[in-house]
Design a protein that fits this description.
three-stranded parallel β-sheet, six-stranded parallel β-sheet, 16% strand, 10 helices, binds nicotinamide-adenine-dinucleotide
């Protein structure tokens, strides 16, 4: 048996095309503010990619670069100005922030209707309540889209999520629950991880430990979603041993080219969604 490769890159490309068409055909004005504090190299690359993706689909991006010594107040003032700027429909503050800035405080300062990362308490709360009209975090939204667009049934399936971070694991669990999966969350304190992962019909791995999941931990025929990203000399690797797991899974996301490209596509989708909702209110 050899797994179907779930091509996140191709799915993301078609979502971006749909977004572009909608923006063009309806003449939607859509603006995303991207805020970067400091000089973190990986963050700079992410911001550059997001800005490029915006311009490809017709979203106007506004980049704000603050020095790593910037005060928390300066950032709060910028967010306040962006909250009140009618040209801006989405605000993204690239994480992580320098340690002297309180991330929670910054996230909660963003108007929830412009919170295109979906990290604020109001949007997380709506997700918890099972609401669908919400700006949900991009990576788990991308996972759901990959499954749906690959015609993988979620309802009634046992989904095991490994990882409970606020940006991936936890929201992924609630989104799978919203899709009527039976959900188990495993994490760093879980005992005998293998006995849990091997029950999964759909296994979502967001741990950040290179090749943690091997074939002995996966049920034959399971769908495996690998969120992990590790830069190695051999290129990008995931949290799953792709070579051996792809021989027993029915479908699997590769790294690179799986969940990663979907995250940016979902950011663009959230920005369009926010723009449409804010326009309706005007
Ligand atoms: P995190 O460090 O915030 O959370 C990791 C989680 O894994 C924690 O909840 C922890 O309890 C759990 N964990 C740690 N060790 C474990 C173990 N041995 N067994 C079981 N669970 C364990 O990480 P994160 O932000 O959720 O990111 C996870 C991975 O996904 C990273 O590699 C990150 O780079 C990647 N990521 C990728 C994308 C993307 O777009 N593809 C987006 C976000 C994160």
């Amino acid at each position: 048996m050899s797994a179907v490769i779930l091509d996140g890159k191709a799915i993301a490309a078609s979502i971006r095309q749909e977004i572009k068409q909608e923006i063009e055909s309806k003449g939607i004005k859509c603006g995303l503010a991207v805020v970067l504090v400091g000089e973190d190299e990986a963050s700079k690359v992410y911001v550059k990619n997001k800005i490029k993706a915006c311009s490809d689909v017709g979203i106007k991006s506004y980049a704000y670069y603050l020095q790593k010594t910037a005060e928390e107040d300066e950032l709060l003032q910028l967010i306040d100005a962006l909250n009140n700027d009618s040209n801006i429909h989405g605000i993204l503050v690239q994480l992580p922030l320098p340690s002297h800035i309180n991330e929670k405080k910054i996230i909660s300062a963003i108007n929830p209707q412009k919170d295109v990362d979906g990290f604020c308490a109001e949007n997380m709360g709506k997700l918890f309540l099972g609401e669908t009209d919400v700006l949900a975090p991009c990576t788990p939204s991308g996972i759901i889209e990959i499954l749906k667009r690959s015609n993988i049934e979620i309802s009634g399936k046992h989904a095991v999520i490994v990882g409970r971070s606020n940006i991936v694991g936890k929201p992924a669990a609630f989104m799978m629950l919203r899709e009527n999966a039976t959900v188990t969350i495993a994490h760093s304190k879980t005992k005998d991880l293998k006995s849990i992962t091997s029950l999964a019909d759909i296994l979502i791995v967001a741990v950040g430990k290179q090749e943690l999941i091997d074939a002995s931990m996966v049920k034959k025929g399971a769908v495996v979603i690998d969120v992990g990203i590790h830069r190695t000399e051999q290129g990008l690797k995931g949290d799953v041993k792709f070579g051996e797991v792809s021989k027993i899974a029915s479908a699997i996301t590769p790294v690179p080219g799986g969940v990663g490209p979907m995250t940016i596509a979902m950011l663009l989708q959230n920005t369009l969604k926010a723009a449409k909702a804010l326009m309706e209110k005007q």
